[in-house]
Write a structure and sequence with these properties.
The complex is a heterodimer of chains A (about 300) and B (about 425). Chain A is of the alpha/beta class. Chain A has a domain of about 210 residues: TIM Barrel (Alpha-Beta Barrel). Helices cover about 40% and strands about 10% of the residues of chain A. In chain A, strand 2, helix 3 and strand 3 form a beta-alpha-beta unit. In chain A, helix 1 packs parallel to helix 9, helix 3 crosses helix 5 and helix 6 crosses helix 7. Chain B is α/β, with parallel strands linked by helices and about 425 residues long. Chain B contains 14 helices and 11 strands. An 8-stranded parallel β-barrel of chain B has the order 1-2-3-4-7-8-9-11, surrounded by 8 helices. Chain B has a two-stranded antiparallel ribbon with strand order 5-6. The two termini of chain B are about 25 Å apart. The chains are: A alpha/beta (about 300), B alpha/beta (about 425).
Chain lengths: ~300, ~425
Amino acid sequence: MAAARSLEAAGVTALVLDRPAPTDHPRGVPAFEAVTLAALLARTTSRIGLVAADSALFGYPYNTARRLASLDHLSGGRSGWRPVTSPDDGDEAVYGLAVGGPDEQRSRAAEFVEVVLALWDTWEPGAELPDRAAGNFRDDTQIHPIDHRSTYYRVHGPLDVPRCPQGRPVIVRAVRTPDELAMAARFADVVEPWCANEAELAETVTAVRAAAGRAGRSPTELLVLPALGWRAGPEVVSIGERDLSQRLGEVVTSTGADGATLVGPGTPEWAEALAGDVLPALRGLLARPRAGATLAENYGLRRSTETDRSVA
Amino acid sequence: MSGYRPGPRMHLSLNLSEFGRHSGAWRHPWSDLAGVPNVDRYVECVHAAERGRFDLVFLADTPVHAAGRTSVTGTRLDPLELLAALAVETTNIGMVATVSTSYNEPFDVARRGASVDTLSGGRLGLNYVASTGEVMARNFNRDAQLPHDQRYVRSGEFLEVVTDLWAGASDGVTPAKAIDHVGAHFTVRGALDVLRPSDGRPLIVQAGSSPEGRDLAARWADAIYAGGSTLERAQEYYQDIKARTASYGRDPSSIKILLGVMPFLGETEQSARELQATLDAYHLEGADTVRHLSGLLEFDLTGHDPNGPLPFAELPVVRSASVSQATLFTRMAREEGLSIAEVARRSYVGGLANMQWVVTGTPQRVADEMQRWFEAGTADGFAIVAPILPQTIDVFVAEVVPELQRRGLVRTEYEGTRAREHFGLPPVLAAAPATR
């Protein structure tokens, strides 16, 4: 909680809450699930975006759509979804569902995301305008079912949660392979490439923008925020403050990225070290989130309002 | 009367909703329509309940869009997330979220439940509901809902899986143990990947009224939300649940029955009745009540003479979520000889209030009635189904609670900070489902 506030004060645009790997937690097992933790942080923060990982392979798309829509309401439009599209070890066993090889996983996840996007669009922007005098809380003619029936899912809709304050949560996608790149370019608002070096990163940034263009999207509809590792530790911090600031600037400029996603152990201690020791040196470079603005606005995203964008 | 008796003090729970449970509440000038869903309003209500030393607040949940004017009372946010947000604003009060056992994966509920329990310092309860309704089924890969008995088989299996997962979860010292569950509805092999809830598992809550639902509650529940519009029916239900609980080898006092009560509160009897009438009028104005009744009874009454009787012989057997209401209104119409128009009006105005206990009057009178019903052995406590929020809870905490405290019927201070502690229940560190 305190770490989230520190990162907010330090000017970070959004916090990404992943499904934590057990070894990353000092006590061996994480305490919190990402979306419910984000819901609590929505109450204790006021500007920072809250992006939560949630599966796009297991469970029901209807539940996922309402979870993330709920987070958007609770946070006043600061939510984001990182769809998890490949199984972690043991996922298939605890859900009793075999999701096949990479191709099947991709098509399952694509249909899942497609359903979630469609459900978020079931309430037109003016559907809920309570009219006390007329006795109408909302206009049911502006709320539409989706009647989705395809390979993996049958979902009638509409969603029971009203339209999100920011229309829909910001979709954040990590990209590690060319296959993931193609999918991300179709529907992600924020693409987060994971590359081994700067040259590879520069190529990937170009490839993401090209793929987005081929998918009919304009460059302002999507941000590229590459993952950059930063490990906390006295020796790194003591020499790294100015270095990191300088390196960030260099990497962003040389690769054509829009910023960066700083990754590490993700513990509160790590976050506090980042906020206290490193980010102050980046002051001039950070696009600080504004209070009262949505996450999409703080990212400067121009978002498509197309309702039936399909996901390949 | 003989049989099982409640303890010396009553437990209290508050049903949370956007404007209150009465469908006319949102049109009342007291209701602020800006920014719905309005989390601050929920915070205000939970703060009041905590000041009143309530055991619990409760969030219902039906994961389906209900079209029409009668459906604006519900909470339209994921209950576990809303409770996570409310947890950070409160310190003692227990908080119950409803989860559908029909349309969830048990592993997700175990993980999310453990997360919110830890976030709240052990204050979570989960109300396990076997969801009903064909429309809801269509949001979850089904063309129709499971048959009634199968829904309860699934609920029982769901409870087995989540409690086994929590029992095997790591406490931060001992590593997590995997479960190996293969059943009719779920296959779950593996270990929970988050910390174990602080009292072993969140409070188990149910709301069973059918024989299958009562058995499931008797086997598993720590607390039950009960309906009962007459004192006699509530007494029968109380004795039945306690007897069923004993038949599973459980201590009957380890299951707490919380009877729903809808209090319309006013400074005078007159102002309380006016509040009720005002809310009813808001709800009724411009409504097509006959169409509403047609929906409940699954039979088109719009072509029939509104001043004539219901066509009893032609009415179908209702199997949907509204089965209890359909039965109630058909019986009411027959026994009281009501016209279609009148039964339509009553079903529309009352809705759920027809199925539970309503008390209208001053705080003094509401306290008197609660004492009378409590001492008559109808319940171990009450679930306050507030017609309009925050007014009902504000008045209740300011005036009814102190009166009940003076009479020694409710606590004056919390004994603990965890949900199970409020009910005098010890931690559960191994899942051993009762059998008979």
